[in-house]
Amino acid sequence: MRIKNILVSQPKPKTEKSPYFNFAKKNNVKVDFVPFIHVEGITTKEFRYEKINIAEHTAIIFTSRTAVDHFFRIAKAMKITMSDKTKYFCISESTAFYLQKYIVYRKRKIFFGKNKFDDLINVIKRNKNEKFLIPLSDIHKEEIPKKLKKNKIKFTKAILYRTVSSDLSNLEKINYDILVFYSPSGIKSLMQNFPNFEQKDTKIASFGPTTAKAVKEAGLRLDIQAPLPQAPSMTMALELYLKNSNKKD
Question: Is the whole model's pTM more than 0.85, yes or no?
């Protein structure tokens, strides 16, 4: 079967530099983007049930821009003014710069890693006397709190937003040659929106081991997987598959 169209279960990239656009043009395939999941912030009422006192924490750990947005949303809703002495530890430099949306950047103590939590943990370890707060989604990497505990860091985990399935009724039926997923939540959304989904000739591509596991646990066939040594990115994995698939036709 010659691959003609692909559905990526994520929002359409905002920049034309996305590898997906080059991939589509090079391989003469149509690539559509539809987010299967979205993020919703918890309410202040829900946050109060967590019984967390933000003000008693001296440092905040941010693993994404989404975490930044929802932390300051909750703080504002609860009329909490952050101390000028609060330290901010960010997963990356871009996340650190994003803080300018909420605080005067040059007047704060801000630290950042190189996009990996292992980099950031080394910075955090040099500030062990701080009491950390880490805003997270209801679905998050368990390795993050595990690494903080392993390094004997005093921290509080705050669930400030949740990942939920999007309404995909506008799709009516999925008529694509390949469906691309980046998270177990995307697979969950597929099954919730289309409980009678039959894979048949539709190929499923997944990124990361947890997503691959979710595909199989849902009783679906996994046809394309990334990252792999020969295909570290999803577009490379797709291109490799197309090359082999179209060659057979």
Answer: no
